[in-house]
């Protein structure tokens, strides 16, 4: 079964947690992953996703992401988690936050095999914006924004 993990370096978990239609403009780059692996195994291939893997385990979502897909995961990096308010990750990983963490993470999972190229094509075909629903009931709107590095 083909599985895709899209690494969205600039997506902050707090942007998606709101749960309403929101524009998430970010540069998205595909990682080199193996289609034989499940999403968790692919994320473990990178040292940049340790917080995400811990969060998926804490939320009890490992079985979901190893289950019948395909799924596309917008995967916040450790750097994205680090941009949250100090202590926020520890609060989210606490057992009493399991339900809230599960809701947040499910807003990062799209049912289907959605590549970066497909997202960019949809943005171009739809006047600069492409909306998609997540398995968590959130609606994400993708847009394209050119990055300027100084």
Topology:
Layout: E1 4-7, H1 13-17, E2 22-25, E3 29-30, H2 39-43, H3 50-58, H4 62-66, E4 71-75, H5 78-82, H6 88-93, H7 98-106, E5 109-111, H8 116-125, E6 129-133, E7 139-143
Parallel strand pairs: 1-4, 2-7
Antiparallel strand pairs: 1-3, 4-5, 6-7
Structure in words:
The protein has helices at about 15, 40-45, 50-60, 60-65, 80, 90-95, 100-105, 115-125, and strands spanning about 5, 20-25, 30, 70-75, 110, 130-135, 140-145. It is an alpha/beta fold. A hairpin with a 5-residue loop joins strand 6 and strand 7 (about 140-145). The longest helix has 10 residues, at about 115-125. It is globular and about 45 Å long. Residues about 1-30 have low confidence and may be disordered.
Can you tag this structure with a few keywords?
disordered N terminus; four-stranded mixed beta sheet; alpha/beta; three-stranded mixed beta sheet; 19% strand; 8 helices; 150 residues; 36% helix; single chain
């Amino acid at each position: 079964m083909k599985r895709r993990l899209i690494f969205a370096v600039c997506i902050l978990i707090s942007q998606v947690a709101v749960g309403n239609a929101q524009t998430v403009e970010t540069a998205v780059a595909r990682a080199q992953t193996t289609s034989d692996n499940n999403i968790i195994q692919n994320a473990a291939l990178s040292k940049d996703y340790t917080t995400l893997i811990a969060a998926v385990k804490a939320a009890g979502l490992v079985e979901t992401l190893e289950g019948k897909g395909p799924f596309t995961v917008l995967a916040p990096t450790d750097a994205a988690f680090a941009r949250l308010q100090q202590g926020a990750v520890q609060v989210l990983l606490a057992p009493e936050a399991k339900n809230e963490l599960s809701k947040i993470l499910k807003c990062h999972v799209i049912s289907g095999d959605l590549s970066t190229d497909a997202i960019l094509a949809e943005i171009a075909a739809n006047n600069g914006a492409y909306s998609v629903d997540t398995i968590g009931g959130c609606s994400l709107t993708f847009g394209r924004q050119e990055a300027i590095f100084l």
